[in-house]
Specification:
The complex is a heterotrimer. Chain A is α/β, with parallel strands linked by helices. In chain A, helix 6 links the parallel strand 7 and strand 8. Chain A folds into 2 domains: 195 residues, Rossmann fold, CATH 3.40.50.2300; 172 residues, Rossmann fold. In chain A, helix 2 crosses helix 11 and helix 5 runs parallel beside helix 6. In chain A, strands 7, 8, 9, 10, 11, 12, 13 and 14 form an 8-stranded mixed beta sheet that branches. A 6-stranded mixed beta sheet of chain A has the order 2-3-1-4-5-6, sandwiched between helices. In chain A, 41% of the residues lie in helices and 18% in strands. By secondary structure, chain B is mostly helical. Chain B has one domain: ABC transporter involved in vitamin B12 uptake, BtuC, CATH 1.10.3470. Chain B is 70% helix and 1% strand. Chain B is built from 14 helices and 2 strands, in the order ααααααβααααβαααα. In chain B, helix 4 runs antiparallel to helix 10, helix 8 packs across helix 10 and helix 12 runs antiparallel to helix 13. Chain C is an all-alpha fold. A two-stranded antiparallel sheet of chain C has the order 1-2. Chain C is globular. The chains are: A alpha/beta, B mainly alpha, C mainly alpha. Chains in contact: A-B, A-C, B-C. The interface between A and B is large, with 61 and 68 residues.
Chain lengths: 430, 349, 286
């Protein structure tokens, strides 16, 4: 026994050496990649998306949308080549942060784009605030990223916030349908709290009443207990927003318990996104569902349909909002880089140019940023319709133009309220 | 001679570690820092799984309690690091006491399952106690004091802490207490008959292990400036255990190597392929088949074949995978063919 | 709340329990005889579900798809037991690392082959909709799952209690050495049991694919629920798996109905409690 510790130390030494050697070797490779930045050099853009693990499907859509823009519109802007460095975050904040640092410190990218999950987006936001690199989030929707905890160099070009689309939706339901007494059912995490908060806030402003709010675990396996409880309270209508895979179970349970057609159902944007619709078999299960969204792949508009057609030709499926957002972000950046004459090294000036960029024709409709780095978009009241080819998609029934993240509220007064949470849903405000 | 060789290695190693910030680019220095933090975490798991024979799948819960406490006190209440850090570790020790009392009555697969249940409860809390934990958005803005703000400065802090933790653990496993843990792992009934309090020994091991996991958790919070429910998820508990087994359970070098390899693979292989989970899975399978005693066991075997470094086969501590002694069904696959076991041996229940 | 509310919730809980039983029975069978905590079981479930989904189109029949999923996973199980698991038998940590590694590989392979969009196995036409009785809705597919669960439970009971193979398995659970000494080829029995357990996972996958839908990550979620079932019921016990499934199904359902904000704790809380009081679960003997 006496000799063991020594042997162990020797082994430790050997393996440590090995690891250091490996690190050194990779470091050498990495060093070789570093070059001084200069005009005429390629513009390097770091893209952070989940390509493995549970977010892989969203990440693939996002990557496809991003690549599609550059394939169709060329990789040279203002005389400089655009290089994309697409890195996998696996939907894990640790790895996302690590990759963000890799892109900024090793690959020397000029800007970062991406992140799908709010947790990754928030982890990366802390870092990019420290280093000041221009960063763009077209997908991550956490309200406070552009509200109470703004990061000056982080912009949500082509992005959205959780409550942005539900603010007008709540008011629309209360004013144009007979529904006055509401029950909400949503995933119990920040995205759910914020989206439902937006709906409930405006719904109660115009005289609606909330009977009950039910929050279910994000990875819910069985919805029937909630639905039985919900049916027992006899609401006029229901606003529901499960996320991800539980959506299919929710829809199935809604049918099985005989609620379809009995209680009007309104759902959040992600519930009828293509990422979900294309996996539902048969699609008739969702035909007729009403939702609100900033993206509507069935919108009768030349730019939208051109993108849908291009995307379908390339990947044989209809585009989800992940794809549309990254495509539009690429469009936005192309415009901004052109306007800045390719000078992306001057970070402040470039951010200013991005902020000033206004787009009239994007797949989403007209878009520009507000004073808080957040886009002002149309919000569409959408209905799921079956296409002649048998697939389901969202067509626009009503358009609410130019909706900001604060909707009709005064931004300063709005920001004095806390962010929507399980405790604060804006029911008594204003 | 071996001693000289050892000290030479330590010197080289120490020098390399000391000067790592001079030759490693920032990103790789960060990876090295992260590896050291996870190495501390994995060593704390190894103390339980490898030495005490208690395989835990809930250690991320204890790690995460510390990280969350540090995060809450630092980012929300604005307390300085020298206050929040000990609070985090204390919280982890308190949680270990609570969990330990529940768990150490059991052993084997039941210990594994009860710790997993505890980890799930912590995760549920992190996920649902929104007003404190921020739900899945987590707590961000856990900033280090200015003196430690740079990656280099923080690396030296972690390096120092790592050396200290490793030293303490080496002393611990060689102490009478550590040896009695090994004894418990190998033959519980015998030690019980000798008058050892099995319960107390295991609880103490749980507490010490929880303390080191808490230290790792607190460093983790300051490392990422951020903590989210992923830091308490049972996936992390599983990964910590995998680092231990990958490197070699029941050795202290094993978890360090395992953590290094795991972090390196996750960060670097994922630069080249999106199929890195498959690579990682294949590595686990190959390790089991080709290096059943972990990478360190494999290195030892190779060293033993090396004529100059010939050394006697180590005893005791290298019995692979503590909990139950291996008795393969098939003589052909038996690493020690002098035991003619063509039929399965009776195993402890 | 009216009585009908309790009725509906009890029905929901029992049928959800039936699905959990399909998964947990295979898991507990494998553990009971082989003492292997098969962490690949969740991945088997997911892979079986996707194979059933793919087989449904050419076969055109839900029943055949279920059989295809079960058979395919049974084959995968045999291969894994025969060529990998056997080498590390009796070493719990090595088994954990091996089955965890295989779960990583299978889950990533599933992602690679079928993509990451959530998909559901379409429910056959005659099982869609609900049976309406006393003004209450009883979904037909849930009734079908319940019948299947009862059928599998009866089959396993018959297998273990009334056949020679069953006697060997039960004897093996109690004393492996003695069984081997009697000249019985215990290794073949091991392979058979692992195959059967895997088939049950595959079967559960196809049914679960219609019940819960398929997506990356479903493997870990269902494995966790399956673990809770067998922990509560007692590892290795068939009665335990039946009772555990029902308890988890009912706890989950009523917990959600009455305390939606506590739904994680309504499962894991009682589990921790049971373990603290009865570390071997309700029916555990080992």
């Amino acid at each position: 026994m006496q000799r063991h510790p020594m042997t162990r130390l020797a082994l430790a030494a050997a393996t440590w050496l090995l690891v250091q050697g490996l690190l050194l070797a990779t470091a050498g490779v990495a060093r070789a990649e570093q070059r001084p930045a200069a005009a005429g050099e390629p513009i390097r853009i770091g893209v952070l998306v989940p390509l493995s693990g549970i977010g892989a499907a969203a990440g693939k859509d996002a990557t496809d949308g991003w690549n599609l823009w550059w394939q169709r519109h060329g990789r040279t802007v203002a005389g400089r080549e655009i290089q994309s460095f697409i890195e996998d975050t696996a939907g894990n904040p640790d790895l996302g942060l690590s990759k963000a640092r890799l892109l900024v410190e090793q690959r020397q990218v000029h800007m970062l784009v991406g992140t799908v999950f709010a947790s990754v987006g928030l982890a990366v936001a802390t870092y990019v605030e420290q280093v000041g690199i221009p960063t763009f989030y077209p997908i991550a929707a956490a309200d406070d990223l552009t509200q109470r905890h703004r990061v000056p160099n982080l912009m949500r070009i082509a992005g959205w916030s959780s409550s942005q689309v539900t603010h007008p939706f709540g008011e629309w339901v209360a004013t144009t349908t007979p529904c006055r007494r509401l029950v909400t059912l949503a995933a119990d995490y920040a995205f759910g709290h914020e989206a439902v908060g937006g709906f409930v806030n405006t719904f109660t402003d115009v005289g609606g009443q909330v009977l009950e709010q039910i929050w279910h675990p994000i990875a819910e396996t069985d919805f029937s207990p909630y639905l039985a409880r919900l049916a027992a309270t006899r609401p006029d209508c229901v606003f529901a927003m499960p996320v991800g895979a539980p959506i299919i179970r929710f829809i199935q349970a809604w049918h099985d318990l005989g609620l379809w057609g009995r209680i009007p159902l309104y759902v959040g944007e992600v519930v009828t996104d293509q990422a979900i619709l294309r996996g539902i078999d048969p699609p008739d299960l969702v035909v007729g569902l009403i939702s609100a969204g900033h993206w509507a792949e069935g919108r009768d508009d030349a730019t939208t349909q051109e993108f849908v057609r291009l995307y379908e030709d390339a990947y044989r499926i209809l585009p989800s909002y992940y794809a549309a957002a990254m495509y539009t972000a690429a469009q936005w950046l192309t415009r901004a880089i052109t306007a800045a004459n390719g000078r992306v090294e001057d970070r402040q000036a470039f951010l200013q140019t991005v902020r000033a960029t206004q787009l009239q024709e994007t797949p989403f409709g007209p878009a520009r940023l507000d004073d808080y780095n957040h886009p002002i978009f149309n919000v569409y009241i959408r209905e799921v319709v079956k296409r002649p080819d048998g697939r389901a998609w969202n067509v626009v029934r009503h358009t609410i133009p130019n909706v900001s993240q604060f909707y009709k509220y005064d931004p300063e007064a709005y920001l004095r309220q806390p962010v929507y949470s399980r405790q604060y849903q804006g029911i008594n405000w204003p | 001679m071996r001693t000289a060789w050892t000290w030479a290695s330590v010197a080289v190693l120490g020098t390399l570690g000391m000067f790592a910030p001079l030759y490693l680019p920032a990103f790789y220095l960060r990876l090295l820092t992260e590896s050291l933090i996870y190495a501390m975490f994995a060593m704390s798991i190894d103390l339980l799984a490898g030495y005490a024979g208690l395989v835990t799948l809930g250690h991320a819960g204890i790690f995460g309690i510390s990280a969350y406490l540090v995060g809450y006190l630092t980012a929300r209440l604005g307390l300085p690091m020298h206050v929040t850090f000990p609070c985090g570790v204390l919280g982890a020790v308190g949680a270990s006491l609570l969990f330990g009392i529940m768990a150490v009555r059991t052993s084997g697969v039941y210990f594994l399952l009860i710790t997993m249940a505890q980890g799930m409860i912590v995760w549920g809390l992190a996920f649902r106690w929104t007003s404190v934990t921020g739900s899945e958005n987590g707590i961000r803005g856990i900033l280090r004091p200015d003196a430690l703000a740079t990656q280099q400065a923080y690396y030296y802090v972690i390096l120092g802490a790592f050396v200290l933790v490793a030293f303490l653990l080496v002393r611990l496993v060689r102490s009478p207490f550590g040896l009695s843990l090994l004894g418990l792992r190998e033959n519980e009934a015998r030690l019980r008959a000798l008058g050892y309090s099995v319960w107390l020994h295991r609880l103490l091991a749980f507490l010490v292990s929880g303390c080191f996991a808490g230290i790792a958790g607190a460093f983790y919070a300051f490392h990422n400036n951020f903590v989210s429910p992923d830091a308490v998820h049972f996936v992390l508990s599983g990964q910590g255990l995998l680092m231990v087994i990958l490197g070699g359970a029941g050795t202290l070098v094993g978890p360090v190597v395992g953590a290094g390899v795991f972090i390196f693979l996750r960060n670097v292989v994922s630069l080249y392929t999106d199929r890195w989970p498959m690579v990682l899975g294949a590595l686990f399978v190959l390790t089991v088949l080709l290096a059943p005693q972990g990478l360190v066991g494999l290195a030892r075997q190779l060293l033993r074949r090396w004529p100059a470094g010939a050394e006697p086969a180590p005893v005791g501590s290298t019995l692979p995978y503590g909990v139950v002694s291996p008795q393969p069904l098939d003589g052909r696959n038996n690493p020690a063919p002098h035991q003619p076991t063509n039929h399965p041996g009776k195993r402890r229940r | 709340m009216p009585l009908t509310f309790y009725l509906v919730q009890a029905f929901n809980g029992i049928t959800f329990g039936a699905l959990l039983f399909l998964l947990a029975s295979g898991f507990t069978l494998i553990f009971g005889l082989m003492r292997v905590v098969s962490l690949t079981h969740g991945a088997f479930y997911l892979l079986g579900g996707y194979i059933g989904l793919t087989a449904l189109r050419p076969l055109g029949n839900f029943g055949l798809a279920v059989v295809a999923g079960a058979l395919a996973i049974g084959l995968v199980g045999v291969l894994i037991e025969r060529f990998l698991l056997r080498r590390v038998w009796g070493q719990p940590l090595a088994e954990a690392l091996l089955t965890f590694g295989l779960a990583f590989i299978l889950a990533d392979a599933v992602l690679m082959i079928w993509g990451g969009d959530p998909r559901n196995v379409p429910i056959p036409r005659f099982l869609r909709g609900s049976v309406v009785a006393f003004g209450l809705f009883f979904p037909k597919f849930r009734l079908f799952t319940l019948l299947l669960g009862v059928g599998v439970a009866l089959f396993l009971w018959w297998l273990l209690a009334c056949t020679r193979v069953g006697r060997i398995i039960r004897a093996g659970v109690d004393d492996l050495e003695m069984v081997a000494a009697l000249g019985i080829n215990i290794r073949a029995v091991f392979t058979g049991v692992f195959c059967l357990g895997s088939m049950l996972a595959g079967l559960a996958g196809v049914v679960g694919g219609a019940f819960l839908s398929l997506y990356p990550g479903a493997d870990a979620e269902i494995l966790l629920l399956g673990l809770v079932v067998v922990i509560l019921g007692g590892l290795g016990s068939l009665e335990g798996a039946v009772v555990g499934s029902l308890v988890v199904g009912l706890l989950d359902t009523f917990g959600k109905a009455f305390f939606p904000e506590l739904s994680y704790f309504t499962i894991f809380g009682p589990m921790a409690l049971v373990l603290a009081l009865r570390p071997r679960g309700l029916f555990g003997r080992v």
